[in-house]
Write a structure and sequence with these properties.
Blueprint lengths: L1 H11 L3 E5 L3 H14 L10 E5 L2 H5 L4 E4 L5 H14 L5 E4 L6 H5 L4 H4 L2 E6 L7 E6 L5 H13 L3 E5 L7 H4 L1
Parallel strand pairs: 1-2, 3-4, 4-5, 6-7
Antiparallel strand pairs: 5-6
């Protein structure tokens, strides 16, 4: 669901969004969700949403990737291995995990990659305008500031956790 929320917010902010899923059924469901919920979204601009099977095609020329694969560490690690290989060298890469710290997914990645990685979590319902951003321990502070600014630009209110922890800010309040 969070991947659909991410797509919804960024598309509503006027961005072109690419969803990647190996399952044709899941790609169709994501596009259906977006088409049926966009009219209810509090944003105003409208970008596009496209679905891809191939990861390299999905992230080609992307400035932001939000990983939302199943909560299995090995799957998340392999996803970031592949993202490091195919995503643009300046692409900000986020994990939507609430079960794992993002450093666990990228500890074997290059330092230049780890500096562009952070956790990014959206909340339900879509009119809840909070997004949580959290360092992986190596995240460049300028990346956090850049992404927080971009989030504000699409109507989100970013909460930035400057140190990494397990779980989410909202769960600890």
């Amino acid at each position: 669901m969070s991947s659909s929320l991410a797509a919804e917010w960024w598309a509503a902010g006027g961005y072109d969004v690419h969803i990647r899923d190996p399952s044709e059924e899941q790609r169709a469901a994501a596009l259906h969700y977006w088409a049926n919920n966009m009219t209810q979204h509090p944003g105003g601009k409208q970008g596009t949403v496209q679905a891809f099977e191939d990861l390299a095609a999905a992230v080609d020329r992307s400035w932001l990737v939000v990983e939302a694969v199943p909560e299995k560490l090995s799957v998340k690690v392999s996803t970031f291995v592949e993202l490091e290989r195919v995503a643009p060298a300046d692409c900000v890469m986020c994990s939507n995990s609430s079960s794992f710290k993002s450093w666990e997914m990228v500890e074997e990645r290059q330092v230049s990659t780890r500096r562009r990685v952070l956790s990014m979590h959206y909340y339900m319902p879509p009119d809840n305008v909070v997004v949580e951003l959290m360092t992986d321990g190596d995240t460049d502070p300028d990346i956090l500031a850049f992404l927080a600014d971009k989030c504000r630009g699409v109507g989100l209110h970013p909460y930035v956790a400057r140190t990494e922890s397990a779980g989410l800010i909202f769960n600890r309040l």
